[in-house]
Amino acid sequence: MRSEAVWESVAPGVELATLEGHAGRAVDLCTTVVEGRTLLASAGADGTLRIWDPVTARQVRVLHGHAGAVDAVVEVDGVLVSSGRDGTVRTWDPVTGERLRTLTGHKGVIPVEVGGKTLVASASPDSVRLWDPRTGQTRQVIAGATGRAIACRGDLVMATSGTAGGGKGVGVWDLTTGEPRGSAEPDGHTTVDLCAITVGGRPLFATAGYDKEMEGGRIRLWDPATGELVRVIEHEPIVEATLDRITHVRAVELGGRERLVSVGQKTVRIWDQDTGASVQVFIPSESWVERACFFRAGGRELLAVPEKYVDSLCVWDTATGEPVNRIQRGRGPFDALCAVDLDGRTLLAGADGHLRTVRLWDPLGPGTRPRPQGHTGDVYGAWAFQGKVVSVADESLRIWDAETGARLRRIRGSMFGIQDVHAFTADGRELLAGAFSSYDDGRIRIWDPATGRQLRRLERRWEEGPTIVCAFDRDGRTLLVAAGDSLLRIWDPVTGGLEHEEECDAALEWLGRITVDGRPALVADARGRGVRLWYPADAVWQDLAGPGADFAFMLGDRPLVAAGESETLRVWDPLTAREQCVLRGEEGTRFAGIGVLTLEGRPLLVTHGGEDRTVRVWDPADGRGEHVIPVHHEVVGCAPLGNGLLAIAVPSGLVVHRVSS
């Protein structure tokens, strides 16, 4: 079996490369040099480390060993150091992939400069171990410290403390003996980060934190030798009506001198630590600061900040404070961001946790995508309609010719909260109904797809709105039933009259539409009490004992339900409890939706995995996987069409494939 893309309305991204391979979130990232080549190493929730060549965009090696998710990876003098949720810290040879050492009962990998040498700090429940990843030798065990933050200056260590202030404060220890030299809990201040910094020629420590009364926080500069509090810098909110609590503090070389940098929820700030004055403030225009990366490119010292909850990566000139670029990075949060130097060119690499990828950008290159052929906002899903494709995004509903990709109709208007689209015939016309689930504003809209006009809004107060809509016939009339939160309602779509309303269990999760002996029914999961069917023509329930389900659909004239667990999906007939098949995917396979594609008269099951970026085709007779379509985007919906066509909705548009044997 094979497939090929027939047409798409997806604009190309501005990233230079997308590195795919992790079966779980990509959560951390660093660079490493192997035989003269600069490579990337990524840590994943799938329990692996992966090494990539950013020049060829190929995976070089996969490192196995952790028994659970890997949380962090750093490179220290040619050795990779990883921390996992299995309670181990491991070292690796990036050249051979060989696992070198394992430190059990510890977590975290914080690089710490000690006497011109980089050590690693890893935490156990009651101490922090400073050790050399090259030899495995322990330099010192700091009893009472936590692994949140640690820094060294000369023969002193400052770290967040598990004893001072119930874990809110900091402590100072002698690096040689490991003995405590003092502790502080700054007036209820919860310390979130610290670093070593030079102030007026004096080696000091900077701590950052806040308490529940603060809207921003404070930076405190300490003399570790005397315990003297040298200066307090107020990190006050400067964005109106929003918190800007400080989250990180660090020392960065900028303009030929060391500068103190703070990262807050809404700003990144550069300070003159000698005076406490603010030098530059960087404020993302649309959202919150996700993280900050300082780097050099094009002869300038730059700052890159991914904006949380939106798809932008902002780049500024740190000397002038002027914006340099704004890159549309696509959906998904960044769990890590680093600069990569390749043959005199600096790129940005991001670990995209949501989409399980590592992506590369030119920070000085094009920032915006070409205008897409279709929707300008995120697409919510795709539905089949009379051999055509319906797609919905924030600003419109569009109808496409399935074979050619020609846009047949655009229905304008806000589509926020749409949950379901259903085609039906009433009064001799083909119509579309949309169910909108929006808090305190749920509704049903009816459109004429031939003209693009909205014919009616069926409105009645819902707490959260309907999630599913279905047409059925009663006494020669076509009616619509909508289900949501704790209500079932039946409407006449022609007159807009409400004909029936009844309460139902608010815990029901509506799964889909089926037909039982010619009678339309809505299917709901009863949350541990099997599956429930509601027949709108008679307004009666049918309770079916057995396990709960996630999906309901028709295979020919047979109603089926399915439930997913890990990498498997069990499919069965809810009326007879007879198992149809079990779909078994490899590690990382997800099941976010299921449908039926008919190919040369043969029905096939089609599933999409959402964030696993694939669509899969299965034989319903035995559950055998027949084909995998790599989509290279998060899949938000899938609509099987005629002639082997399959419409796949991704956030930036539609991709239509033709599947053939």
Automatic annotation (TrEMBL):
Keyword line: Repeat, WD repeat
Q: What are the WD repeat spans here?
A: 39-62, 63-102, 471-492
A Pfam family that this protein carries is WD40
Q: Where are the membrane-spanning stretches?
A: none
Q: Which SMART domains match?
A: WD40 (SM00320)
PANTHER family from the UniProt entry: F-BOX AND WD REPEAT DOMAIN CONTAINING 7 (PTHR19848:SF8), WD40 REPEAT PROTEIN (PTHR19848)
Task: Write the protein's name.
Answer: WD40 repeat protein
